[in-house]
Design goal:
The structure is a single chain. The chain is built from 6 helices and no strands. By secondary structure, the protein is mainly α. Helix 2 packs across helix 3 and helix 5 crosses helix 6. The radius of gyration is 15 Å and the shape is elongated. The longest helix has 18 residues.
């Protein structure tokens, strides 16, 4: 998977939220109300002018009836969990391959727990 910059990650996450919202026939106002966000915040998240908090992502995912990791960008043929794992690993200081593998496994366990 190609590296995604933090800015690209925020942009693609906003696009994914908008895509899922419209696919479910929800307006921004309805998704905002049901996820307990202001419409301004939701609009800013969808337009990549605001980074969503983890709490916001969980609440949005719940309303959209998806797992939170499904809001993250992924390659069309890849597992969406790979995108979130790669994004988190890029935020950490560089480590050796064995440590990266252990971190990936631990993060995958967290992402799939539910």
């Amino acid at each position: 998977m190609a590296a995604v910059t933090p800015d690209e990650f925020v942009i693609e996450t906003g696009r994914r939220i908008r895509e899922l919202r419209t696919r479910r026939g929800l307006s921004q106002a309805e998704l905002a109300r049901r996820s307990k966000l202001s419409i301004v915040s939701l609009n800013r998240i969808e337009c990549a002018r605001q980074e969503p908090s983890l709490r916001s992502l969980v609440m949005i995912a719940e309303v959209l009836e998806v797992q939170p990791f499904e809001l993250f960008p992924s390659e069309s043929t890849g597992d969406p969990r790979d995108a979130v794992l790669d994004a988190f690993l890029r935020l950490l200081p560089p480590t050796d391959p064995d440590t990266q593998l252990r971190l990936r496994r631990a993060l995958l366990a967290l992402v799939t727990t539910g």
